[in-house]
């Protein structure tokens, strides 16, 4: 609807001979569309996937969080539960990857960290709902 009003305003301005106003209005409209596209404003895609791994109780979580922030644009802790008779904690995060092509690198990097076990990353297509 905004596109229709922007086009109508540009057409009226051009028809009245106010070419500078028509050009400036069109430029501002295009800039706003470009900025909204970059920010993914109004996007229905919330998360790219679910990342699960186990970490021994008392292990340092700082390297894990640093790695997760390096590869993801957004992450939220979903569950944290005790496993292996209280020897480890299972972490489950919903993540939005900065680049979906780096998913294998993220899993490999997590598996290389000391103490991290059973790493799994479940990605779903944002247009598919089950």
Largest sheet: 4 strands, antiparallel
- Return Rg in Å: 23 Å
Total strand segments: 4
Any low-confidence stretches, pLDDT <50, length ≥5?
Answer: none
Overall mean confidence score, pLDDT = 83
The gross shape turns out to be rod-shaped
* Count of helical stretches: 4
List the strand order in the largest sheet: 2-3-1-4
User: Into which percentage range does the β-strand content fall?
Assistant: 25-35%
How would you characterize the overall build of this protein?
The protein is an alpha+beta fold. It contains four helices and four strands; from the N terminus they run ααβαββαβ. Strands 2-3-1-4 form a four-stranded antiparallel β-sheet. Helix 1 packs antiparallel against helix 2 and helix 3 runs antiparallel to helix 4. It starts with a helix and ends in a 7-residue tail after the last strand. The model has no long low-confidence stretch (mean pLDDT 83).
Question: What is the gist of this entry?
Answer:
By secondary structure, the protein is of the alpha+beta class. The chain has helices at 2-15, 19-39, 62-71, 103-112, and strands at residues 49-56, 72-83, 88-97, 117-123. It has a four-stranded antiparallel beta sheet.
Which terms summarize this structure?
130 residues, alpha+beta, 4 helices, 4 strands, rod-shaped
Describe the SSE topology.
Blueprint lengths: L1 H14 L3 H21 L9 E8 L5 H10 E12 L4 E10 L5 H10 L4 E7 L7
Antiparallel strand pairs: 1-3, 1-4, 2-3
């Amino acid at each position: 609807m905004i596109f229709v009003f922007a086009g109508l305003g540009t057409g009226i301005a051009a028809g009245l001979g106010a070419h500078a106003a028509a050009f400036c209005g069109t430029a501002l409209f295009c800039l706003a569309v470009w900025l909204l596209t970059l920010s993914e404003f109004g996007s229905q895609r919330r998360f790219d996937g679910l990342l699960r791994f186990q970490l021994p109780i008392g292990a340092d979580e700082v390297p894990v969080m640093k790695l997760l922030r390096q590869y993801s644009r957004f992450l939220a802790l979903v569950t944290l539960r005790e496993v292996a008779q209280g020897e480890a904690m299972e972490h489950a995060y919903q993540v939005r990857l900065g680049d979906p092509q780096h998913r294998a690198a993220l899993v490999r990097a997590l598996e290389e960290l000391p103490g991290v076990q059973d790493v799994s990353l479940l990605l779903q297509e944002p247009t598919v709902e089950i």
